[in-house]
Specification:
Radius of gyration: 25 Å
CATH superfamily of the largest domain: ANL, N-terminal domain
Number of helices: 16
CATH architecture of the largest domain: 3-Layer(aba) Sandwich
Distance between the termini: 47 Å
Strand content: 15-25%
CATH topology of the largest domain: Rossmann fold
Number of strands: 26
CATH class of the largest domain: Alpha Beta
Strand order of the largest sheet: 2-1-11-10-12-13-14-15-16
Length: about 550
């Protein structure tokens, strides 16, 4: 696997730079790429720049930036020095960012120009330097004389310890306040190698990076792993909307992509299904299993071309994939794969590759990591997933109490997730332990499973199921725009009459939503076991607030 004395970037980066010197490393889509040799030079000059700013091993430095080559270069430079890097999610609000800066006692901030506005209303006197990461221009500095020099050489000798705190990640979690997850270089590098055991990365493989690099999923598997293997990574200059993504995929023709379920679920709901529903013949064929398979296979071929026609690995992680959408991917023979893990596990704990997937299962555990179901239910085998290995975090920053809650004295990490192993050793995820609702007679109710049924109902965008005063309540966000469009198309006479009278269409939509809500409740209750039936359905007009991996922040809705 590897023959380094220590799993540290200061040992590994010079090695990969030397080994893959002429390979393309990092670049924006359609622009010139930096080679590995060039990346090595840039890392050296950023280390010299950090030295000039008096940044030392152990100092905390924040990176808050959209994805770009300089993100990775800055990250590797700080890691080679033994500086604690604090990657912050670009969608953190001012309050969350303030919390991170103060809690981590950040000495410097590398920020992309696009996010500089977030610093305006923040108290940041204690931060010595603020640097624009796009071009390494100092925006605020203790010593005004310091400037970035790409030819500068650094002076120090840096030998970080693989077990020391290296990365401090503040999760925006679905359950309240951010926690500072402490990861070592050994944690993230060993997990990159573990991920390579699930899907081997080859030299010259092309990655297209669309998830934020400050999320450990993209960081470990979409940055560190490809760089260890000599592969090539492309970034987008704009957010990954369809109009940006489709031409980018045609240009890059990626071999590998990492995504979250929401991306592919949107493609299925907004592109694949409407296309099938358009014609009466395809609508009819969609009703039957065998012909549906055929339809999906044809749609899959088209989708594969949209993704550039070279894809061998479309990784889906960060949340559970909807079963209907997964069945479509299977029938379409689309090269998807599922991964499971947490920030605290750096992140990957279990996964599969496209050559072997099972419906609604994750995969086997990664190599050199123990994963077990603690205290399994004697009948179902379900219980909390626990893990132990080189990729398990050091703990929560300055929070011993919270650390003791999740790490046992002998090193097991309690994930807070419910799971079960099948006879072949494949792990399946049942939901969050905290989300599980215990019914009146002690039954385990998994809200995620009910939500999966709700989300497959027409015009539903998303939902959450919670317990309120002993009742199961579903909050549902419908696609009003889609309904307005439908009403205008279907009732041309009506539309003609109310031309310009928006409120009449709105009233009509309100009436349709009420009807749909009643129908949805009956639809769900006829498809779930009797103790998982919805007693109250509430229409939610706005989209739910989400984390970086597009999971709903459930704690906001209890």
């Amino acid at each position: 696997m590897h023959t380094y004395n220590q799993l540290t970037f200061s040992e590994i980066i010079p090695d990969v730079v030397n080994k893959f010197a002429n390979n393309k490393a990092l670049g924006f889509v359609g622009e010139e790429y930096i080679t590995y040799a060039g990346m090595g030079d840039n890392i050296h000059s950023v280390i010299a720049f950090a030295e000039a700013m008096d940044i030392k091993p152990g100092d905390r430095v924040v990176i808050i930036s959209q994805n770009m080559p300089n993100w990775g270069i800055t990250y590797f430079a700080l890691q080679c020095m033994g500086v604690v890097t604090v990657p912050v999610l670009p969608d953190f609000n001012e309050y969350e960012l303030q919390n991170v800066l103060q809690h981590s006692e950040a000495k410097a901030i590398f920020i992309s120009e696009s996010l500089e506005y977030k610093l305006e209303s923040i108290q940041k006197d204690f931060v010595k330097y603020i640097i624009r990461i796009d071009n390494f221009k100092i925006l605020k500095g203790e010593h005004q004389s310091v400037i970035f020099n790409k030819d500068a050489k650094y002076n120090g000798k840096y030998e970080p310890d693989e077990n020391n705190l290296a990365v401090l990640l503040y999760t925006s979690g679905t359950t309240g306040d951010s926690k500072g997850v402490m990861l070592s270089q050994k944690n993230v590098i060993s997990n990159a190698y573990q991920s390579d055991g699930v899907q081997e990365i080859l030299e010259h493989d092309k990655f297209l990076s669309v998830l934020p690099l400050s999320h450990t999923y993209e960081n470990t598997i979409g940055l560190i792993l490809p760089i260890l293997k000599g592969a090539n990574i492309s970034y987008l200059r704009k957010p990954p909307t369809a109009s940006v993504l489709v031409p980018a995929m045609k240009t890059v023709k990626p071999d590998l992509m990492l995504t979250v379920p929401m991306i592919i679920e949107k493609v299925y709901k907004n592109s694949i299904l409407p296309e099938i529903q358009k014609k009466s013949i395809t609508r009819f064929l969609h009703k039957y299993k065998h012909t549906r398979k055929l339809l999906y296979r044809l749609a899959g071929k088209k989708l594969y071309q949209t993704f550039g026609g070279n894809l061998k690995f479309f990784g889906i992680g960060g949340a559970k994939l909807d079963a209907t959408v997964e069945q479509f991917l299977r029938d379409a023979k689309f090269p998807y794969a599922i991964g499971y893990g947490l920030t605290e596990t750096a992140p990957l704990l279990a996964g599969s590759n496209p050559s072997e997937t099972k419906l609604q299962a994750i995969g086997r555990k990664v190599i050199s990591c123990e994963v077990k179901i603690n205290n399994p239910d004697p009948v179902t085998g379900e219980g909390e997933i626990w893990a132990k290995g080189s990729n398990i975090m050091l703990g929560y920053y300055m929070n011993e109490e919270r650390t003791k809650e999740v790490l046992t004295p002998d090193g097991w990490f309690k994930t807070g997730d419910l799971g079960v192993f099948d006879k072949q050793g494949w792990l399946s995820h049942k939901g969050r332990l905290k989300n599980m609702i215990v019914g009146a007679n002690g039954e385990n109710i998994y809200p995620e499973e009910i939500e999966s049924v709700i989300n497959n109902f027409r015009h539903v965008i998303e939902s959450i199921v919670v317990e309120k005063k002993g009742k199961l309540v579903a909050m549902v966000h419908f696609n009003r725009e889609e309904m307005e469009q439908k009403i205008r198309e279907l009732t041309t006479e009506f539309a003609h009459k109310v031309d310009g009278k928006i409120e009449e269409v709105t009233h009509k939509v309100d009436a349709v939503v009420d009807e749909l809500a009643n129908e949805l409740q009956q639809y769900v209750n006829s498809r779930v076991n009797k103790f998982s039936r919805i007693q109250l359905l509430v229409v939610h007009t706005d989209p739910f607030q989400k984390t970086a991996t597009k999971k709903i922040k459930r704690y906001l809705y209890f």
